[in-house]
Specification:
This protein has two domains: 14-61, no CATH class; 66-254, Aminoglycoside 3'-phosphotransferase, Chain: A, domain 2. It is 39% helix and 12% strand. The chain has helices at 28-40, 79-96, 150-161, 178-189, 193-219, 237-246, 248-254; strands spanning 14-16, 19-22, 49-52, 58-61, 66-67, 119-120, 129-132, 135-139, 146-147. The strands form three sheets. It has a four-stranded antiparallel β-sheet with strand order 1-2-4-3. Bound molecules: adenosine-5'-diphosphate (ADP) and magnesium ion. Magnesium ion (MG) binds at residues 5-6, 127-128, 141.
Length: 257
């Protein structure tokens, strides 16, 4: 059964019984080592890596539940849902803390100031988190995972889940609630003081990083990304950075005030 959701592997991710089959990339062995580590430490908020099938696809456990796909359902836009994403992300970072990434070849890293030994997920889009009963229970799609940082993941998740962008670019029930939702997200995750002072810089860099990643895919003629080319939600990084730097309320919310 074809699974709806992603962009990069659109039309190529299928469910077979209790498993999911996905195309591999050059860096898949690194992601598999990561999933094995998460299994070893008993983290159940990620699929299990079960091997490679006869067609060369990776075999993962199927996680029962539902990812958040457009049009976004009301239950995915609640504060409870947002709180559960922060909690899940925190527990992932605890589970991955003692994983050594050095023996593996990873996808392109985040900006240098965001890179450390911790392997961050790096792609916390709504369709990459599985929910059950209104709460986030698992991260999926570790294709972009690489040495990064908690801060980089928090910035990515806050940007997409709060979301952090001008209200004109928000069409669902989250519109008008950025400040309170950001405060909730940062607090639920439990960012420390130093990270709080850097989170908006991370958000700005994260927006630019993804903008450039999409540009790269468009230039490479990757069809599923073409629809982004004219998407009204695609904000030029300079415009986004300006909006962020002007927004004092958002800056205060990251500090918890
Ligand atoms: N392990 C899994 N358990 C349950 N559903 C999954 C799993 N892996 C993928 N899916 C489903 O397949 C969709 C696309 O998979 P994903 O791995 O995110 O592909 P892409 O690389 O295209 O983003 C997801 O949005 C989700 O609906
Ligand atoms: Mg995906």
């Amino acid at each position: 059964m074809l699974l709806p959701g992603g962009i990069a592997n659109r039309g190529k991710v299928v469910r077979v019984g209790d498993t999911v089959r996905r195309p591999q990339r050059d860096t898949s062995p690194a992601a598999h080592a990561l999933l094995r580590h998460l299994e070893k430490v008993g983290f159940d908020g990620a699929p299990r890596f079960l091997g490679v099938d006869s067609q060369g696809r990776e075999v993962l456990s199927y996680i029962p539940g539902t990812p958040v796909l457009p049009p976004y359902p009301d239950w995915a836009l609640t504060e409870e849902a947002l709180d559960s994403v922060a909690t899940l992300l925190r527990s992932y970072h605890q589970a991955v803390a003692h994983f050594d990434p050095t023996p593996h070849t990873w996808p392109p890293s985040p900006p240098r100031s965001m890179v450390g030994p911790l392997v961050s997920h790096n792609d916390l889009n709504l369709d990459n988190i599985v929910f059950r009963d209104g709460r986030a229970v698992a991260l999926i799609d570790f294709d972009l995972a690489s040495p990064g940082s908690r801060l980089w993941d928090v910035a990515c998740a806050a940007r997409l889940w709060v979301p952090l962008r001008p209200d004109a670019y928000i069409t669902d029930a989250r519109r008008g609630h950025a400040v309170q939702r950001l405060r909730l997200f940062v607090g639920s995750y439990g960012l420390d003081r130093d990270e709080r002072s850097r989170v908006l810089t991370a958000v700005q860099q994260n927006q630019q990083w993804f903008f450039e990643l999409v540009e790269w895919h468009i230039a490479a003629g990757h069809r599923a990304f073409m629809k982004y080319k004219k998407a009204e939600t695609r904000i030029p990084p300079a415009k986004y950075a300006h909006w962020l730097s002007e927004n004092q309320e958002i800056a205060r919310a990251t500090l918890g005030s």
